[in-house]
Design goal:
By secondary structure, the chain is an all-alpha fold. It is built from 2 helices and no strands. The two termini are about 35 Å apart.
């Protein structure tokens, strides 16, 4: 409904059902197209597995670089915990 403002009465007497879209007909893929799709999926799976393996190797290498100084820096940046427990009254306008 266009041009409606807050507090207006809604009039549904002019409402119409929306036309449904016709179903899209797709042709059945050929066997060669299905084989191509399967090969592409297999390539993607292989690439993802290799990426995971590389990531695991990188984590092992980077863990060697994390020495005592690194962990001391982490503790410094984390800092002390914030104080908990609020007091007072909260209001809103």
């Amino acid at each position: 409904m266009q041009g409606v403002r807050k507090g207006d009465r809604l009039d549904f007497t002019k409402a119409r059902l929306v036309e449904r879209h016709k179903a899209i007909e797709l042709k059945k893929p050929s066997k060669s197209d299905l084989e191509k799709g399967k090969l592409l999926i297999a390539k993607l799976v292989s690439k993802m597995r290799k990426g995971r393996e590389n990531l695991a190797r990188e984590r092992i290498v980077s863990s060697d670089l994390m020495d005592e100084v690194y962990f001391e820096a982490l503790e410094f940046w984390r800092g002390e915990d914030l104080q908990t427990g609020l007091e007072g009254v909260a209001g809103s306008k």
